[in-house]
Amino acid sequence: MTHEEIEEASRIASEIIARHRPKQRRITVTQDDKDAFSMIWGMYVNADEASDGTWISDEDRKKITKLHNKIYGRR
């Protein structure tokens, strides 16, 4: 995953989160958001597996997984 891809993933996630109150449990995303996040999620999973889980902190991994679960309605 390149630096630019990581920045793009961060920007997309930040935009989704910024549209919602911090304490709101349910978020609303557009189909474009889902499509973009799906692509970024695939790159994240590939990079994480290739590095044996060492390229991202456990805290950040937990945050991105939590966002993924909220977007796709998983708990």
Low-confidence stretches: none
Order of helical and strand elements: HHH
Helix fraction bin: 55-70%
How many helices? The count is 3
| Total E-strand runs | 0
Q: What does this protein look like?
A:
- This protein has 75 residues and is mainly α.
- The protein has one domain (3-71).
- The protein is 67% helix and 0% strand.
- It has helices at residues 3-18, 31-50, 58-71.
- Helix 1 (3-18) packs across helix 2.
- The chain is globular and about 30 Å long.
Compile the SSE list and pairings.
Layout lengths: L2 H16 L12 H20 L7 H14 L4
What's this entry about, in short?
This protein is mostly helical and 75 residues long. The chain has helices spanning 3-18, 31-50, 58-71.
Entry keywords:
single chain, 75 residues, mainly alpha, 67% helix
